[in-house]
Amino acid sequence: MSLSASGTNNGFVGAPLFLLLIPESAGLAIGMSMLVDNVVIIPAALILFQAASGRGAPLGRRIGGIARSVLTHPLIIAIALALVLLLPALGLPGLAPDLAAAALLTCALPSMSIAAALAEQHGEGEFGAAALLLSTVASFPTLTAWLFVVGALGWLPF
Known about the structure:
- By secondary structure, the protein is mostly helical.
- The protein has helices spanning about 1-5, 10-20, 25-55, 60-70, 75-90, 95-105, 115-120, 125-150.
């Protein structure tokens, strides 16, 4: 349940939304958001799942294996390298209104779809699917409301 609440659906919902709303900054916004999900949220969830299961190798070895697989994943390396190369050219991205809008709207996205698959691996597939469905349905009115808020704040380029 906590993975459903903390991990956002950047790929299927966030990317198209940001490409429509802030096309000039969409790549940076999506990359930063996916980096947080893939380097912080998903590994933390996997570590907690492993700790709760109490099976297999000692917890320290399992955490090391998860960290190693995350840090050596080509997608993570590519996103991190792109951010390192782009951030100096862009200045302080946290102050840009379009990226502030992206950060706020990321919080209103539905749950990441992998949450249901991970729940299935731990015997909670129906619960994971229900949580994903509920967060997706609930995101329609909440995401719409936040779109109005960021528009009223002038954080969008139109």
